[in-house]
Structure formats: structure tokens, C-alpha cells
């Protein structure tokens, strides 16, 4: 913990260099994209994308889970997505899954989450992603990612923006061991390197 404290203590000195105030325009934040990913510490959106401060809205959840849209059901995830798209004007939504995802493994082997009942419930109530076709069935993490994309398409305001071309949805898959990032192509139902 001490190294984290020391880094935070001197962060302002590093920020005043080339990543300083120039990174955020005077008129306010205008992010290029929203990056929805797992809360796993191995996945670092700004390292993967090279984003500078103000360029990326991040949403991190256990297993990059998107809750299903339900009228009257408030979730922090839905509110964050709505704010990024409707208020900040984000035109690209990236959902990024990854290899060695503990949440997906926990979903596959629900017994591993007995000591984390809230996490287990969160993962079990989200989607029957094992039934998602076209993901090569042998990789539950990729099938899980496709299921999250499917849920986003069911959010009414996102669906309208997707249909009108004012919003683009991307499914990325990050291989922790190699650093390779692949993109899901719905037309071929395959993942291809970016």
C-alpha cells in the first residue's frame, strides 16, 4: 500500500508534465469513448488504448457485467452508461472482456463463489450467456462478452442511437498473457485481432 500512497502523493508533479491541463479542453470533458470492462486489476483501459485524461469514460464491474434493462430498475451501471451517452455525447461504447477472468470462472463454477454470495448473485442474475451462439462455445469469457453486448442493444435509448448510426458498439477481448486485443465481429460471429 505504501508504494500506492507515495505515487498518489507525487502524482501532481507528473501530471504537470506532458499530460497536464492541456489534456482536458477548456470547454470541458469531451471523451472519445466509453470503456466498459472488468474490475480485474490486470485490465487497465488507459494502457490498452493509450487514452489520456478526459478521453475515456470508464465503467468497471465484476466480470464487465451489464445488468439487463428493466423499466423502474435503477442501477449504477445503467446510470453511468446513460450519462456517458446522453450527456457527454460519447459515440463509441467498448465492452472489453479478458482471459483469466475470475468472475466468468466463478459463473461457470458457481461453487467457487460460496464465500462471495453477493458476487455470485450478481453474476447469476445477469444473462444466460452460455446459450449465446457463435462464440465458439469452448470459451465462456468470449460468450460472456457477446452476452453483455446483446444486453446493451436492448437498452431503448442505446438501441435508437445504434439504429440511427449515432452510436457504435464494440466488443473487445484482451488476452492478459500476450496483450493481444481482438474485436468481435457480429457479421461473422468471430473475434479478429484489431
From TrEMBL:
<comment type="similarity">
    <text>Belongs to the beta-class carbonic anhydrase family.</text>
</comment>
<comment type="function">
    <text>Catalyzes the reversible hydration of carbon dioxide to form bicarbonate.</text>
</comment>
<dbReference type="InterPro" id="IPR001765">
    <property type="entry name" value="Carbonic_anhydrase"/>
</dbReference>
<dbReference type="InterPro" id="IPR015892">
    <property type="entry name" value="Carbonic_anhydrase_CS"/>
</dbReference>
<dbReference type="Pfam" id="PF00484">
    <property type="entry name" value="Pro_CA"/>
</dbReference>
<comment type="function">
    <text>Reversible hydration of carbon dioxide.</text>
</comment>
<keyword id="KW-0862">Zinc</keyword>
<keyword id="KW-0479">Metal-binding</keyword>
<protein>
    <recommendedName>
        <fullName>Carbonic anhydrase</fullName>
        <ecNumber>4.2.1.1</ecNumber>
    </recommendedName>
</protein>
<dbReference type="InterPro" id="IPR036874">
    <property type="entry name" value="Carbonic_anhydrase_sf"/>
</dbReference>
<keyword id="KW-0456">Lyase</keyword>
Amino acid at each position: 500500500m505504501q508504494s500506492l500512497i507515495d505515487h498518489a502523493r507525487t502524482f501532481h508533479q507528473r501530471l504537470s508534465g506532458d499530460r497536464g491541463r492541456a489534456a482536458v479542453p477548456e470547454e470541458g470533458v469531451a471523451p472519445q469513448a466509453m470503456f466498459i470492462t472488468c474490475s480485474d486489476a490486470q485490465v487497465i483501459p488507459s494502457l490498452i488504448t493509450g487514452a489520456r485524461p478526459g478521453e475515456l469514460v470508464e465503467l468497471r464491474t465484476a466480470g464487465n457485467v451489464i445488468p439487463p434493462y428493466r423499466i423502474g430498475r435503477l442501477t449504477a451501471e445503467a446510470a453511468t452508461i446513460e450519462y456517458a451517452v446522453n450527456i457527454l455525447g460519447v459515440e463509441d461504447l467498448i465492452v472489453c472482456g479478458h482471459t483469466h477472468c475470475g468472475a466468468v470462472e466463478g459463473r461457470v463454477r458457481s461453487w467457487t463463489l460460496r464465500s462471495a454470495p453477493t458476487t455470485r448473485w450478481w453474476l447469476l442474475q445477469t444473462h444466460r450467456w452460455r446459450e449465446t451462439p457463435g462464440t465458439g462455445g469452448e470459451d465462456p469469457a468470449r460468450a460472456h462478452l457477446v452476452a453483455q453486448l446483446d444486453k446493451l442493444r436492448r437498452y431503448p435509448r442505446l438501441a435508437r442511437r445504434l439504429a440511427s448510426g449515432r452510436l457504435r458498439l464494440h466488443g473487445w477481448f484482451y488476452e492478459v498473457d500476450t496483450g493481444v486485443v481482438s474485436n468481435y465481429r457480429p457479421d461473422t460471429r468471430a473475434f479478429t485481432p484489431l
